[in-house]
Write a structure and sequence with these properties.
This protein is of the alpha/beta class. The protein contains 13 helices and 12 strands. β8, α8 and β9 form a beta-alpha-beta unit.
């Protein structure tokens, strides 16, 4: 068994069993990849992939279990490399941040500016998060962090830490009947078509719970995760928008009015997520604390020593989070 063979297996899985695409991603040849996979299957005595003619059509049950271990082994390889690289030169490395448009636009600029000036030799990359409906929405690479404003559910491979709390606001056209209402009620909101976040998102869940408690059934005309899209359609007169306060306040020269909704909806949680297999290096600790000041290196080291999410949660009891 060779490490390169394991990389071939993961590449095939990541490319939807397309061996040609997998070979291209690894800058090698398709016959070479197919040959090495066949040799590994022969050595192990099991079929990892189902085949239909010359094409791969699926992953066998034992193949699924093998690939789980392959991904762990390759993550460990990256961890070992990162450990060696930090020892040789702690000023170089890579940091990948996966996040939403709203977070990247309104919350990250200060941290990115601070980080890139302090660590000019660190490769810093911003990536969009995948849609909520996509399976495995959180990246789990050896230098990947996700900052998300929605719950992602239980995942034994991830550490999920509270980053901040966010609130929601209302945007309406300046000539709308609600424009001069300082504290609109849920009943008043429900009298107009609502444009807001998709079902399943944290912001939408908080809204649904509030309307349900009041026995009100609002009319959601449009649901989309991009707050700027929602504001645009509110401008066009399609309804009223309930979005993140960060985005709702950014309405200069738009013809919109912002109205605070803290009296109607509870704050929502936002999270920083990363793989349990990651090797946190000093520049990573620094970035985390620049974005979420409560995530000190001391606290993070305590988090990494815990063996259950309940113990991690206790570390954050009583901790005051930033509110946006």
């Amino acid at each position: 068994m060779k490490l390169q063979q394991l990389k071939y297996l993961k590449a095939i899985k990541d490319n939807n069993l397309n061996v040609s695409a997998a070979s291209q991603s690894l800058f090698t040849t398709q016959p070479g990849v197919s040959k090495q996979v066949g040799l590994l299957e022969k050595e192990l005595g099991v079929r990892i992939f189902e085949r239909r003619g010359k094409n791969l059509s699926g992953i066998t049950p034992i193949g699924e279990r093998i690939l789980e271990q392959v991904e762990r082994m390759l993550a460990l390889e990256q961890k070992i490399k990162a450990l060696a690289n930090e020892h040789l030169d702690p000023s170089v490395g890579t940091l990948n941040i996966y996040t939403t448009h709203t977070i990247a636009r309104y919350l990250l600029p200060n941290s990115v500016s601070y980080f890139t000036k302090k660590y000019p030799n660190i490769n810093f990359h911003l990536h969009p998060t995948l849609p909520l409906q996509t399976k495995g929405v959180i990246s789990k690479g050896h230098s990947d962090f996700s900052i998300v404003a929605h719950d992602i559910g239980a995942d034994n491979d991830l550490i999920q830490l509270p980053a901040y709390l966010w609130t929601m606001g209302l945007v309406v056209p300046e000539d709308h009947p609600l424009a001069d209402v300082r504290k609109p009620t849920l009943k008043q909101l429900s009298e107009y078509p609502i444009l807001s976040y998709e079902p399943g998102s944290t912001g939408r869940q908080v809204q649904d719970e509030a309307f349900s408690r009041a026995g009100i059934h609002p009319n959601y005309f449009m649901t989309v995760m991009d707050a700027d899209v929602i504001k645009r359609y509110v401008q066009l007169g399609f309804g009223i928008g309930i979005i993140s306060t960060l985005a709702a306040r950014d309405i200069e020269n738009t013809g919109l009015t912002y109205i605070n909704l803290d009296h109607l909806f509870e704050p929502c949680n936002a999270w920083i997520c990363f793989s349990k297999d990651i090797l946190l290096q000093n520049y990573m600790y620094d970035f985390l604390m620049s974005f979420s000041p409560h995530l000190t290196k001391t606290l993070m080291e305590s988090v990494l020593m815990q063996n259950s999410s309940d113990k991690v949660d206790k570390l954050f009891e009583g901790l005051e989070l930033p509110v946006y």
